[in-house]
Design a protein that fits this description.
By secondary structure, the protein is an all-alpha fold. The chain has 2 domains: 20-109, Orthogonal Bundle (Rna Polymerase Sigma Factor, Chain: A); 123-215, Butyryl-CoA Dehydrogenase, subunit A, domain 3. It is built from 9 helices and no strands. α1 (20-28) packs across α2 and α3 (62-76) runs parallel beside α9. The longest helix is centred in the middle third of the chain and has 23 residues, at 87-109. The radius of gyration is 19 Å and the shape is globular. Mean pLDDT is 81; it is low at 1-17, 114-123 and 216-220.
Length: 220
Amino acid sequence: MMISRSNQPKMSNNEVPSDEDALIRAAVAGDTAALAALLRTSGTRLREQLSIDRRWQSVLEADDVLQVTYLEAFLKVGSFVPGGSNAFYGWLRRIAENNLRDAIKGLEAQKRPPPALAMDVPVGDQSTVALFDLLGVTSATPSRAAAVTEMKSSLDRALESLPHDYAEVIRAYDLEGLPVADVAAQLGRSPGAVHMLRARAHEQLRALLGPSGNFFSTPA
């Protein structure tokens, strides 16, 4: 499995328990060795049940879905609530299905979101404003142009907190405007994986950036 190069918890020095319930408790408590063991078992089952339409098989593979799903599991396992023998697998499968839907949605669109050209801001800042608009953390007020500097500073801090591949997708696709194929080549991923990573990165950014009011205290 592929795990992001940064924002990755340290491995536990404790012996990994063999019982699944014990593995789940250890994983939720932050033991990445226990989580890795769970993913090895559940991942095999998930791969067998994962179905990708033939139309997308040239740009999206099961490994793409699993890799992004495993990364998300590492990021979110602390909030997982055990609830029966199949609870962990069901949780992991829902993550995988969401990733697959996001990949197909992105592949179908295959278009970069239009920049907020109506904003009275320098051309080089339009991608930042467009990203905030896309994330839904801005409001249509005249003070937005004056808040661009604060927006860029907040975005830089948020990107530093994201896993490496999440941040790189945002920088290359949303901010630099590179085509999906170029972003995929840069990351060593498939185009489908780029769309999955971008969807997950947007979720993380919304949580980190908070409500729009944080950025518009400066008068126009």
